[in-house]
Amino acid sequence: MEKKVFVSGCYDMLHSGHVAFFEEAAQYGELYVGIGSDKTIRELKARKTINTDAERLYMVRALKVVKEAWINSGSGLLDFEEDVKRLKPDIFFVNSDGHSPTKERFCKEYDMEYVVSKRIPHSGLPVRSTTSLRKECLIPYRIDLAGGWLDQPFVNKLFPGAVLTVSIEPEFEFNDRSGMATSSRNKAIELWHTDIPVGDKEMLARTLFCFENPPGTKYVSGSQDSLGIVLPGLNRLFYNNNYWPERIDKVNEDDILQWVERRIWLLPLYPRKDNYDVLADTHIDSDGAQALSIAADNCWRAVMNKDIQGWGKALTASFEAQLRMFPNMAPKDVTDTLEPYKSQVLGWKLSGAGGGGYFVFVSEKPVRNAIQIRIRRENTD
User: Which end of the chain is more exposed for a tag (fewer CB within 10 A), N or C?
Assistant: First the structure.
């Protein structure tokens, strides 16, 4: 008998990339497809689908490579759990950007083989993703490479320092609540709809920051989010007892940006849980802020000198300085996920405020189940 192969996803705006993914999965056996419900997609992605779950189910079932399809009965990241118990598949097949350690552990628990796709398009066709077909996806995300939290006055008033950010082309649809500035990006979409307009980038970033944080906002989002999204390339934002940086150092030289993006890897985790509180049990002091500032400076120098060993050490030092002040950034299941990678990579940190999201790794070699990003260049705006 053929093996049972299970895949699960949204499959909104069905396109050639989905079909190629299904064809690749079907090479392993009979293909069964679980589809996220409209309710689940709203919970995970904080937006509505273009097509309803009934429409998506109809289209997926019509594909000749699909043995059977259904709407997953559960909710959340593992909305397919009860369906998998019923099906008892031999293989769980995922896209590289759909991988998560949670899914991998789930497969071990139910004795399924876990296979990660290489995202191979059909011959003669371009690589497609739902994200690339959504007009609003032209607005970038951002990653903070070091110094995160120094954009908050309750930290930078204790010791001034820099936050290093890179603007990321939206080639993947990063999960909300995952430290990729998705809330600021959603505000940018609300403000500008399809892309960042032409104009003074710092002024546009200030506009976005003010739009996201109107008077009376209880928790002010750090300005590294709006600046990291709007300013192309790599940027060093220096903060000193204020919400807005007093100096911005910009790097748009292609040789440096290429060097960075070829050595940075993102390992998907799960989105931060709704009850996650990174500000509980904090130990914020001048020593911690100073350690974070020093680590960011060391990271900047290492990248400018293309010193990957120094970059890796500074990245880890920045993360450790964050954990010293904000221990809730790394729940136990997150630190457990990190352990096997420590001997394989040169440095690591969590994206954004942690609690889940993505591990950011520095490595000369490919990192298992991790994805790579493309930095937005100045001439693409």
Answer: N
